[in-house]
Amino acid sequence: MAAATPPLRPRNDLGQYDDLAGEWWAQRGQFAALHWLAEARGALLPPPRDGHVLVDVACGGGLLAPYAVGYRHIGVDITDSALRIARSHGVEPVRGDAGRLPLRDSCADVVVAGEVLEHVGDFDAVVAELARVLKPGGTLVVDTIADTRFARIALVVIGERLPGGPPRHIHDPKLFVSPPRLVELCAAHGIALELRGLRPHPGDYVRWLLGRRTAVRMVPVRSTAGVFQAHGVKAAQ
Fold first, then answer.
1. H or E segment and range at residue 53
2. Disulfide-capable partner of 9 in 13, 67, 156, 205 (CB 3.0 to 4.6 Å)?
3. DSSP, res 152
């Protein structure tokens, strides 16, 4: 008997992550692109030292785990089903809201916020929390979606209909992120960001569609009008 099709929920409804819990580690499943993005953000992680802590905000099913080896990898998420899966991949799960992280100040050597800022209602509060838990001298790594017409068409109108694209209704484009605003907020907390755009490698994507690749490389581009990546170091106090 075929599996039941999950209900089409309102945009940005957290219940979707429970509906799609079985998709987290399916390389050709509905979260396929999140695997590709996890590899791209993993490439920006500094080499870990003994005892270094990485806080993975909105960790989902723990897709960053293969790239965070050597860190004490703490994953914060609000969805219990995702945290159970993350735990099975070696992540220390902590249930919490990205806008009120249940962690002490300056506890993390690295803070990662992958594909979460475009889902939150209080963007300013979440950025403040990322900065609060990051140690002076620590590294922040972010990827998200720009608040542009291009992103709304590419990631929602078209992307939700493409294999490997975002699941239907997973995003609310009203919450997409202004790159200049992200830079401004992080600077106010002592973090100078470098930004770059990301897109799937076209040849890899075709080969993935044909079943000849298990993953698609995300390659850097100049434009930050679609998916973009940011990283920076918090100034020493």
1. strand 53-57
2. 13
3. I
